[in-house]
């Protein structure tokens, strides 16, 4: 199993001021034209109020895009569009979207993709063979990692660690799908 880091295709604004609010960083910025989900997906999500493109990976047939969406009720959702399919975390109130303590909201399959909470500055994935992979975050705290192997990311990512800017471990979460709990 090999994790391949995303070529971060979302622009980085090095001069951005630190964000101190509780809204995810992506929703605190002005919406750009690329932040809109494709029309068919917007029609399928009638309660959608706004979306932001928070991470991209690859190009052509191997292109993946991760959106952070907010419903009219204020609930948050992440939606991964990849290889002609959509998957997501489901929509949750902002207070529970990133977990407790607030860390990472992610999906896994062909890709491991997600959004880190505002106070998270570093995400580290541990593979089943204990190899650790630092995951670069976009300015919006999004990320996409591609995995190889028969079960792809569902069985490649064993643990997800989220760290604060101080270096303190905020969350250590077991990620393996139940079918992957036994090591081959």
Give a structural overview.
This protein has one domain. It contains 4 helices and 12 strands; from the N terminus they run E-H-H-E-E-E-E-H-E-E-E-E-E-H-E-E. The radius of gyration is 16 Å and the shape is globular. About 8% of the residues have low confidence.
Count of strand segments: 12
- Strand proportion, as a percent range, falls in 35-45%
Structural class: mainly beta
Lateral arrangement of strands in the main beta sheet: 1-10-7-6
Tell me the radius of gyration.
16 Å
Main β-sheet description: 4 strands, antiparallel
Overall outline: globular
Task: Note the gap between the termini.
Answer: 12 Å
The low-confidence runs, each spanning 5 or more residues with pLDDT under 50, are 6-20
Query: What's the SSE pattern?
Result: EHHEEEEHEEEEEHEE
- Whole-number tally of structural domains: 1
Secondary structure layout:
Elements: E1 3-5, H1 25-28, H2 39-44, E2 48-57, E3 64-71, E4 76-82, E5 85-88, H3 94-97, E6 104-108, E7 111-116, E8 120-127, E9 132-135, E10 142-147, H4 152-156, E11 157-164, E12 169-174
Antiparallel strand pairs: 1-10, 2-3, 3-4, 4-5, 6-7, 7-10, 8-9, 8-11, 11-12
